[in-house]
């Protein structure tokens, strides 16, 4: 039974109509009439529902991806609002702390797609969906499908606290659980479930690649997944070691953190490179990271804390 309640009288009527279930002890003719009426009312109800929107703070690019497994990738960015975490060193706290609430636009997937094309033209074939935590938003799925239909690859980074089915359709998925320095705690039961679903998806893809090899039908999404942990101190290193050992078959990245996310000084590269050198030295002495990749935060080396780049 469908319920749609808003302030609009028409929607209240839809709710009342859909409350009337078909009787079970009537003749076949009456039953068919009720079935047809029910189907018609469902169509009216669907038409009355508002289109799902995406809370967007920024659309920009093309630029280069500064983090994780696709570092250096030419890409467009869509930054969404909202996050279920409150990391102490978050470099995009404006997505959740209310400071940029007046900049949030509620856009349809088509609106976002059109703006990406208006800004980027034919100068991109990769889009990064960032936040905040985009995995809070069911509505991202429609955007992913629009981009896929146009042959545009997608990437997302999320802390691994929420699941959305559209994650299966993302080409480059980075799961970035937050270490102790963030002040957040990892729910490993949820993270286990997300990693398991993504790994199973990769197995399914390999099987479908064989099936679709000689077919004209659309091939499955070519998906890569990885884990990334931002490192500020030795406690974070121990956490990263725990994560890597828990998921040894998932490509693993460590990245230096930026402790000075509010500075307007563009010349922070020197201090960040010192932190990067420290992280390299630590990782070289730890056998657990023999197959890990150690990265800087590329965009901060080039642009500091500037937004929209």
Describe this structure in words.
With 309 residues, the chain is an alpha/beta fold. The protein has two domains: 9-48; 54-303, Alpha-Beta Barrel (TIM Barrel). Helix content is 36%, strand content 17%. It contains eight helices and nine strands. It has a nine-stranded mixed β-sheet with strand order 3-1-2-4-5-6-7-8-9. Helix 6 links the parallel strand 7 and strand 8 (252-256). The radius of gyration is 23 Å and the shape is globular. The model is unreliable at 1-32 and 43-48 (pLDDT under 50).
Order of helices and strands: HHEEEHEHEEHEHEHEH
Average pLDDT value?
A: 84
* Rg from alpha-carbon coordinates: 23 Å
Helical proportion, percent range: 25-40%
CATH fold-level topology of the largest domain: TIM Barrel
The low-confidence runs, each spanning 5 or more residues with pLDDT under 50, are 1-32, 43-48
CATH class of the largest domain: Alpha Beta
Shape: globular
Q: How many helical elements? A: 8
Assembly type of the chains comes to single chain
Largest pleated sheet? 9 strands, mixed
User: In CATH, what is the homologous superfamily of the largest domain?
Assistant: Aldolase class I
Assess the beta-strand content as a share of residues. Answer: 15-25%
Instruction: Tell me the strand order in the biggest sheet.
Output: 3-1-2-4-5-6-7-8-9
Structural class: alpha/beta
């Amino acid at each position: 039974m469908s319920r749609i309640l808003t302030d609009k009288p028409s929607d209240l009527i839809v709710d009342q109509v859909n409350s009337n279930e078909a009787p079970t002890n009537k003749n076949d003719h009456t039953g068919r009439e009720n079935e047809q009426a029910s189907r018609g009312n469902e169509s009216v109800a669907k038409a009355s529902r508002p289109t799902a929107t995406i809370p967007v703070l920024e659309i920009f690019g093309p630029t280069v991806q500064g983090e994780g497994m696709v570092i250096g990738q030419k890409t467009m960015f869509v930054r969404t609002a909202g996050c279920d975490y409150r990391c102490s060193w978050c470099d995009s706290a404006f997505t959740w702390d209310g400071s940029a609430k007046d900049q949030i636009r509620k856009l349809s997937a088509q609106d976002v797609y059109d703006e990406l094309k208006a800004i980027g033209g034919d100068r991109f074939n990769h889009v990064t969906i960032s936040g905040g935590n985009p995995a809070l938003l069911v509505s991202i799925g429609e955007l992913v499908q629009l981009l896929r239909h146009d042959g545009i690859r997608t990437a997302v980074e999320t802390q691994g606290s929420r699941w959305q089915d559209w994650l299966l359709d993302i080409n480059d998925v980075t799961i970035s659980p937050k270490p102790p320095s963030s002040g957040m705690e990892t729910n490993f039961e949820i993270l286990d479930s997300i990693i398991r679903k993504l790994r199973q998806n990769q197995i399914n893809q390999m099987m479908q690649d064989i099936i679709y090899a000689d077919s004209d039908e659309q091939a499955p999404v070519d998906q890569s997944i990885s884990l990334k942990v931002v490192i500020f101190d030795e406690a974070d290193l121990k956490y990263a070691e725990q994560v890597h050992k828990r998921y040894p078959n998932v490509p693993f990245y460590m990245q230096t953190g930026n402790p000075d996310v509010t500075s307007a000084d563009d010349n922070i590269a020197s201090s960040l490179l010192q932190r990067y050198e420290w992280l390299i030295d630590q990782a070289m002495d730890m056998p657990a990271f023999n197959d890990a990749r150690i990265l800087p935060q590329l965009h901060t080396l080039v642009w500091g804390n500037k937004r929209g780049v």
